[in-house]
Amino acid sequence: MPKKSLHREYSRLAGFLRRISLRLQLLVALQLLLLLPTVILLILLGSLFVLEMKGIFPYLPIFYVAMTILSFGILLFLGAWRILSRPSVKRVARGLEEKFPELRDDLTNSLSLMDQLNNGSGSKPVSKELITAHLKKTVEEISSIRPHQVVNLKKALAHLRILLPLMGTCLVVLAIDPTFLNRSLGLIIHPLSNMPDQKTVISVEPRGSVMLRGSPLEIRALATGYVPKSLALAIWPEEGEVKRVTMKQERSGQFAYQIPSAQFSFAFQAYHGGDASPIYSVRVVDPPDIGKMKLTLIPPDYSALPKEVKEDGQIEALKGTMVNLEVRATKQVKEGKIILSQNNQLLLKVDGDRLIGSLLVFYPGLYSIHLMDDLGFENPNPVQYPIRLVLDKYPDGEIMSPDHDLEISGDEILPVQYAAKDDFGITGVKLNYQVGRKEYSLNLKNPNQSRFIGPEIFKWDLSSLDLTPGERVLFRLEIWDNDSISGPKKGYSRTLTLLVRDERARAAKEGEEARQIAEALLDLLADQLEDKKEKNQMTQEIEEILKRVDKNRERMEKRAERFDFEALRHNLSSLKERLRQDPKETITQEMERLALLAEEISKKAKRNEVEAMAREIKNRQNRLMDFLKEFKGPLSREALEAITKELKALEELIRSVMEALAQLAPELPEEFMNVPELQGFEFQDLLKDLEEIHKKLTAGDIKGTLEAAQRLIQALSEMMAHLGRLGRQAGMGSFERLQGEMARQAGELDKILAEQKEILNETGKIDGELKWRIERETEKRLDRSLSDLNHILDKLRHSLTEEQKDLIEELERLLKTGNLERFSQLGEGLEGAFSEKPDDQKGIKELMERMKGFAPQQDEIMTPEQKEKFPDLSKREGNLRERTDRLREKLEMFAQLFPGMDTEILNDFKGASGDMGEASGKLEKEDAPSAIPPEQEAIRRLTRSQQAMQQMAQQMAQQMALRMQANRWGYQWWGYDPRPGWYYGPGIPMPTRPQPEFNRPMERGYTGIDREEFEPPSKDAYQVPKIFREKIMESLKEGIPPQYRREVEKYFRGLTE
Q1: Largest separation between any pair of C-alpha atoms in the chain
Q2: Spatial CA neighbour of 45 closest among 148, 202, 181
Q3: Which residues contact 787 (CB under 8 A, 6 or more apart)?
């Protein structure tokens, strides 16, 4: 038992010591592991110093490598020896006793006692129990000691204090010099390579390359080992002999040679003595470049321009043009792109040496094409091609007529002739106009991409603008083009101005001038009746009146009143010519007629003044209504002043109309004054409405003001309708009656003229038959006496000279042809030539007397049937003269009623009547040849009168047409109508101003042309949907709401009535 205890305690002690020994080995191993990288890093860093000092100490690298290998080997040997040689138990025990003094010599003694016991040595044997007790005590002492207290492995980390800074230093050096590690390892691994040697090693750059033709090339050589002072370079071109040159030394061991421009491929080698570099080749190639270029320019669709193909590379196109490029390179390329001046790039599609792509033109600038071949070379200095934008010009418009500023009345229809053009297309044409501070526009035309428009005419109804005297209308054309890329552009024509003249003042001035002309004619008539002045003095006064008439006639231009002044001037000029010839009574009648005509012109001017006032009233009432309808909110001071100004102007106009109508009342027909519409119509009511409007405006009652304005406008509309009828009856009635009478008398004149032509025709037939009979009888008598006449001529020929014989031959020729009239004329002349030869003269007289007997008298050959016709023709001519006299008397009566009739018509009728009387007398004497000239003269006079009457009828028709189309009244043949929604235009639709609805009474009497074109609706045109009909029926069953009962009953009473 004591023996087992002994061994157990010893085993515990020995095990503890072995563990301590093992930890010592592990500590040494860890220290070695950390020490090895430290040494390696020191060796690597030390190589830097060695490589730098190699130039001074050539054998320093070898010595350094040897010392490195020796030191590293010793370190490895010592480390391995310490790791492999395990410390003995006794050594470990002594170490513990040294570290822990409290153990004293217990461990050593325990181990020695155990050895003695095992070996049985010693002079005195020791008791096992004592040894066991000592071991147990020692084990108990070490049981409190831990292994890490004896051997701490952390002591190995102390080497990190050197390792970590060395690692940081190496990383910094490696970052600065990436080749540091390779060079240091090379120095250690290949130490013999750093031995100084007498052999030269030459390396060159570039080691074979491809370069562009014409590019510079630098060949560099590096000599290592034995460094010579110079190197030579051999160059072998593709064609030609070798070329040897000396390279320039830059630094020790570094040489260079510069080729300014390489033009061909070659091989090269650097050498010195027997040492040489490898042979390398340099291939010289051409860069890629543009061989041919084709541009296809596709303009934008809106321009409708054809495609354009160009080969010069320059782009000149509209904005938005698509450019398709096709490029042929001088060699195959792998990449192509378009570089724009805005630094944008567009890649091209590459197919060998063909490149295609597209470019959309939006901005001007430059572009170039960059090419790259398979070797990576690009085309040097690419050509910069220009991109120029062709401007899409602004559309242009022109107002051709009117071509200058105009003065207008404000109610006419202005024909605006315009034309527009654009380089590619027009989408719209508008007429912009400005009235006051407001601008408006009218759409004239929406062409379908047309480049040219016009000249076209737009009939602009100025009456719809409600212009007042003194206002200006600025207008111009606005033209839009079809630019779909930058957006439609608009252009303008020049601006024209329309100035509204004061028609009322002009009419008053014209009326005053017409009154002065009428007074001058009345004074002239008084002088004629009293015989106070000589004919010359009266002629001068007529000339003065003619000058005043011409001045007014020129100012009338194309107005209807121009015809009255032309008639007055024509008749006054005719009177001046006949002043000395015609009897006093005729001159007096003509002067009376001209005075009446001048008075009629003066009255028309007064009516024109009333018309101008009516137009201004219409325009001002529309303006007032528009202002009240547009107004929203309380009235400002400026607005109140503007409305008050309009109301005062309306009041003044109404009072002026009252005064003018009072002056015109005596000349109005009774049927006009007795129409039902005028009964109960009072102008004072209009003034009261104006006063009520002013009061409500002052009180701020806008709703009441609007209602009062509507009542005023209704009354004004009715007044203008009455004035319209006045104008038509007073201005047009006389023309209609005169035109009807003139038409009837013209028909009678046509019959008289036709009858006179028949009489002339029958007279001509009788005269022709008589001439034919006379010619036949003359020929017979001439045939019977022809031989005798020739005998007389032969006798005369022998006694004549050579010149006179020609006369005899002419007489013979005339005799053969039967031209007796010319024969007689020539024979009478020949009779005077033989005054000195009585015998010959006697022969000539005999010849002429016989010739006179050849022509028979008219009564000798006239047949009884022809004689019976003359009394009837004479009677018809006399009756025709009486009809002409009656027609002249009627026209003289019309001339008193209508002073504008042409006096020459009456004079021609009087002359034709005298010619008919003369012709009747000749026919009564059976003298047809003498009756023909007066008959022809009568026809000429009647034809002239007929043409004068037709011209007069045309002038009256033109005057009536001008009155119908002048658009002067508030209510007329076409234009404004006081009834809402009615409009009669001149052939084309015109914009109108919507008129207010009034609860007006049913119109009676003549109110204009109450008709319009319409299509009768079908029975289903106004059929209400079924659901609405059902709702209406249901609501009727419920009865009429009390608040609407009166209106419903009134509606149904109106239906039954």
Answers
A1: 241
A2: 181
A3: none
Q: How far apart are CA 409 and CA 501, in angstroms?
A: 6
197-285 in CATH: which number? 2.60.40.10
Of 442, 428, 436, residue with least CA distance to 476 = 442
Assigned fold of 290-390? Immunoglobulin-like (2.60.40)
- Judge whether 155 and 25 are in contact, CB under 8 Å: no
The strand pairing partners of 221, in sequence order, are 204, 255
Sign of the C-alpha dihedral computed for residues 274, 275, 278 and 284 taken in this order: negative
b/e per residue 788-804 (b: at least 16 CB within 10 A): ebeeebeebeeebeeee
Rounded-to-integer distance, Cα 841 and Cα 588, Å: 65
What amino acid occupies position 839? D
Phi, psi angle pair for 531, to nearest 5°: 55, 45
Q: Which of 251-260, 505-514, 516-525, 792-801 has the least mean pLDDT?
A: 792-801
Model confidence over 976-1033: pLDDT tens digits?
333 333 333 333 333 333 333 333 444 433 333 334 444 555 555 555 555 555 666 6
Query: Is the domain covering 396-500 a CATH 2.60.40.10 domain?
Result: yes
Q: Where are the alpha helices (DSSP H) in 256-402?
A: none
List pLDDT tens digits, range 543-565: 888 888 787 777 776 666 666 77
Quote the percentage of the chain above a pLDDT of 90: 2
Q: Which of 178-192, 275-289, 632-646, 650-664 has the highest mean pLDDT?
A: 275-289
**Contact yes or no for 581/511 (Cβ under 8 A):** no
In this structure, how many other beta carbons lie within 10 angstroms of the beta carbon of residue 884?
28
Q: What is the pLDDT of residue 256?
A: 93
Handedness of CA 959, 963, 965, 968 (dihedral sign): positive
Answer whether 396-500 and 610-728 agree in fold. Answer: no
Residues paired with residue 975 on neighbouring β-strands, in sequence order: 984
Nearest alpha-carbon partner for 303 in 425, 122, 178? 425
pTM of the model: 0.45
| Least confident piece of the model among 167-171, 669-673, 779-783 | 669-673
Predicted local distance difference test score (pLDDT) of residue 1011: 40
Helix/strand/coil for 997: coil
Residue ranges covered by each domain of the chain: 2-176, 197-285, 290-390, 396-500, 503-607, 610-728, 740-768+864-965, 777-860, 1026-1056
Contact 493, 476 (CB under 8 A): yes
Q: In 3D, which of 780, 650, 785 has the Cα closest to residue 719?
A: 650
What the block records as the tokens of 787 is 């031989």
pLDDT (tens digit, 9 = 90+) per residue, 698-745?
Answer: 666 656 666 666 666 666 666 666 655 555 555 554 555 556 666 777
> What's the distance, CA 638 to chain centroid?
40
Burial bucket for residue 45 (CB in 10 Å: 0-12, 13-18, 19+): middle
3-class DSSP assignment, residue 916: helix
Burial of 905 (0-12, 13-18, 19+ CB in 10 A): buried
Q: What is the DSSP letter of 216?
A: -
* Amino acid code (one letter) for 842: K
Nearest to 820 by CA among 846, 866, 782: 782
823 confidence band (pLDDT: 50, 70, 90): low
On whether the CB atoms of residues 998 and 973 are closer than 8 A, the answer is no
Question: Which CATH superfamily hosts domain 610-728?
Answer: Nucleotidyltransferases  domain 2 (1.20.120.330)
Q: Is 687:651 a contact under the CB 8 Å cutoff?
A: yes
CATH T-level assignment (fold) for domain 740-768+864-965: Four Helix Bundle (Hemerythrin (Met), subunit A) (1.20.120)
Q: What is the mean pLDDT of residues 495-513?
A: 80
Q: What is the DSSP letter of 1021?
A: T
How many beta carbons lie within 10 A of that of residue 515, not counting itself? 17
Whether 968 has a pLDDT exceeding 50, the answer reads: no
